[in-house]
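Troubleshooting: if your tokenizer reports a length mismatch, compare your output against this known-good record of 313 residues.
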Amino acid sequence: MSATVLGALLGLSTAAGVWVVVAYALSRRRPALADRVDPYLRDLPEAPRMATEPAPSSRPTAVGWAIFGPSVRRIAGGVERVLGGGATIRRQLDRVGSALTLEQFRVQQALWGLGAFAATAGIGVLWSVRTAVSPLALLLLCAIAFAAGVVARDQALGRSVRHRERRMVEEFPTVTDLLALSVAAGEGPVAALERCVAVSQGELSDELRRVLAEIHTGTRISRALDDLSARTGVPSVARFAEALAVAIDRGTPLVDVLHAQAADVREASRHAMIEDGARREVAMMAPVVFLILPVTVLFAFFPGLVVLQLTSP
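Known-good structure output:
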């Protein structure tokens, strides 16, 4: 190739590159069609959308849900038909203070099951590369993994409920004493509840904040407290709500009742701690009996056994 041809090719490629850069810069400076039309449409009202309808989004998760969402909902419907117990799940969601609906929880169960199914299938495929794996056995194992994922989400909800109720029991004496002090200082029950909610944080405070929100929206105080007693799974909180409702309706003394309930909960917590310590003490005997004691006996008798073997004819 001559120098003239090589120079012509290099000049042509350079000119093409410069033309591409300049064209791209000019196209970036030109406003898009949406930007040109938007000032004329900005004052128009938006199309009405249902409250449950999600807002349009281009995120990968939104796109994936738009594609696979109907299938996941059908799987969630199948889980609901097989397992049932919708009323129990709604009560547990209410006790845990979750904003999830039954359908959303079933969708989460389906997603957990599909995640376990995919993980088991992936492990099975990788294992089949090294050795022969029966497809029927792998399919059965994946089905078991799907069921385990669904059950695991249900168990996680149960653990959340127990953890939240345990926290409520721990917070109950402090909140009750604070409420009793506020009532003894001359405040009314609703004002005392507002003061307790304002200065405290926790699960029980969230429940009382929900009660106050219902009262402020027009619900009768006794009705809001009865709802608290019905939805909670803690007997002490239910008794507290019932006593507060009776005191508000009949005007009975409330301070002594609140102090007595706080003392009862503290005494019950002390007994529960003693029982838990006794159970843990028994559990601590297992490693002593089955691990430390055999090793001690072995160390004690092994030297004598070795001496007997060395001195025997």
